[in-house]
Amino acid sequence: MQRLFVLTTTLLLLATGCLTAEKPTSPSDLRLATTTSIRDSGLLDLLLDDFEARSGRSVEYVAVGTGAALNLGRNGDVDALIVHAPEQEARFVEDGFGDHRTQIAWNAFVLLSPVDLPTDLDEALLDIVEEKRCFVSRGDDSGTHVKEQELWQRLEATGAVTLVEDSNGVHPEGAWYFSIGQGMGAAINMAHEKDCVTLSDRGTALHFQDNISLKMVEYNDSALFNPYAFIQVSDVDNPVANELLTYLLNDGRSIIENYTINGQPAFFV
After folding, report:
1. What is the pLDDT of residues 195-247, one digit of tens each?
2. N or C terminus: which one in the chain shows less Cβ crowding within 10 Å?
3. What's the whole-model pTM score?
């Protein structure tokens, strides 16, 4: 089934990372805006196939960065969201655009690198800056981009680096830093082609691992915790959104738990 819906002229403005669109006219029962990472990992279509088979409902989705997804929710262009930037989500709910946020899954952020990196996260980031290692940033106001900026700011707080703030967000300065305003898959592919480092969610990193030369570097650091939340858009009030949430917390939970890529778990519940 063709699930990706087109918001009239649905265009990602790559230079700014923003999405502009008019409301779609869609025959589906539910319109969902989701982060690209849960789509690029391969999990989303598996979940929606099962939900549609069980419920008889139809779901169409658009996969964008979390910032763009939240904007679609604010505009009432979608009925529900799956996103992964907790502070932005909390503001979205506090401002009255969403009923509440419910965590449905989690994994961790990882670094993908062409070279060995230090085993401590802050030391690895400092190594990237000091060695001017090519780094690809999504630069799209996605949950991954938000997390990347948080990590740079944590390093800045130690006095180890100086950051700049511009249209690409908060980041170190240098020609080695590339901000592309695109999704996770595009960032990984560019990092692979240019032998760069990039920050990725674990699920998408595993999905791409067989096709890239980059090493996946994992860290036991709570700063890399990556929760995915479901939010029903308040003004739309589509009851099918609640049906999908109920599914994700029940029958869909086992699919999330058992979903593996190359034998490795991609998400946890």
Report:
1. 999 999 999 999 999 999 999 999 999 999 999 999 999 988 899 999 999 99
2. N
3. 0.86
Q: Where in the chain is the domain with CATH 3.40.190.10?
A: 11-107+226-265, 108-223
CATH number of 108-223: 3.40.190.10
* Three-state SS annotation for 148-181: HHHHHHHHHHCCCCCEEEECCEEEECCCCEEECC
Question: Two tokens at 58?
Answer: 């139809």
C-alpha angle 49/89/42, rounded to 5°? Answer: 25
Q: At residue 62, what is the residue type?
A: V
Helix (H, G, I), strand (E, B) or coil at 112: strand
Model confidence pLDDT, tens digit, residues 35-68: 988 898 899 999 999 999 999 999 999 999 899 9
- Which stretches of the chain are DSSP H helices? 36-40, 43-55, 66-74, 86-94, 121-130, 143-157, 184-194, 202-208, 239-249, 251-258
Name the class of domain 11-107+226-265. alpha beta
Please name the amino acid found at residue 159: G
C-alpha to C-alpha distance for 167 and 98, rounded to whole angstroms: 27
Name the nearest CA neighbour of 143 among 82, 232, 72. 82
